Amino acid sequence: MPKPGPATRNGIKALDLYCRKTNARNLKRLSLSIGAALGTNKSILRENILSQAAALEELRYRRQKNGTVSVLSIDAGISNFAFTRFSWPLNQELPSLIDWKKIQLRDKFMSPGRKEMSLHPEDTSQVIYELTEYLTTELPLPDVFTIERQRARSMSSRTILEPILKVNILEQVLFSNLRCKARLASGSEGNYLVASSDPQRMTSYWCSLTPIRKPLGQNFPKGSEEAQMKMSSNRLSKSIKINLVKRILEGALGYEPRKLISLTPSWEQRLRSFITGNHKFKLWDCAVLGPDAGVRKDDDLADSFLHGLAWMEWLRAYEEVFNIVMKEQGSYDQNVLADFNDYCKNKKLELEKFQKGTSDNLTDLELEEK
After folding, report:
1. What's the CA angle centered on 95, arms 71 and 56, to 5 degrees?
2. Residues 163, 165, 166, CA angle at the centre, nearest 5°?
3. What is the pTM of this model?
4. Coil, strand or helix: which one is 194?
5. What is the CATH number of the domain that holds 66?
6. Domain tally, the chain
7. Which superkingdom does the taxonomy of this entry point to (predicted)?
8. Other CB atoms closer than 10 Å to residue 88's CB: what's the count?
9. From the centroid of its chain, how far is CA 132?
10. CA dist 58 → 87, 207, 233, 319 (Å)
11. Does 138 fall in a domain?
């Protein structure tokens, strides 16, 4: 990929300038809006914002240069490997849903008759090699692969359980394979990017501002486990994300007032077969998955969907703030600082308003996996 021009370099510098001039509260708001890691002080906040801005600048540059940008987001799992692809052309207001799948890696990539994928290097090498080839040769290459970072332990366990270890190996080796293949193909990482996507940042972006006390108190018995749940509950955040994806799909079909994605004709026809406006449908059915799709559950599909769309929304916010800080060719201006501060404040208010709409759907919660 050609080196980004002066506008790119000046944009990062200008963002740094206005981050230095604003306060920590606005930096936290901006961090949420572009998917940056938080920090304990203003200096760390600013460093994390600039780190995320550098990744988003790569995508902004590609979108400007090529007229479109695409992301393929992966929720890694041995039995429930899910991925979603979004594309966002310059001449289109919203990103489009292009692909949404879930596969059972053992059934798809291991020799017939094998009952499970072991921790033996022969198994992991074969499966992840075949998976890498599938993602890079059988599917159109995206501008960026995002792979959800996996937890190292299961809940409060002091040991690493074998299923968790397998998924960690899958994540690490797949990341390495994809990045190495890009390097070998072009002598650099220019063909596509590979990003490790933090699930906490994604969940924070989509869920952290969702009001939960009132709906849980109204929909579940007083004193029950559900009524007292906190946002840190895996069961609650899983339920919010599944309901949120349903809202986004309903919005794309006109059943919800806010529209975040557009649909290709084939996807619109497919979704209208299952979504009728009553919110009682399964994401599994919407994705129209085959026999090699693993366990029939929605959370993996929701995670890959929201990771991909989060990167599109973070890119949108970055482009918007980029245009603000470059109003005076990146030089400091009091009016630009006021616009920058207003943007940070209003973007968070916009997220609060959107997330509030998910609360009405928390009438039942996903069950914990056994």
Report:
1. 50
2. 65
3. 0.91
4. strand
5. 3.30.420.10
6. 1
7. Eukaryota
8. 22
9. 20
10. 15, 26, 34, 11
11. yes
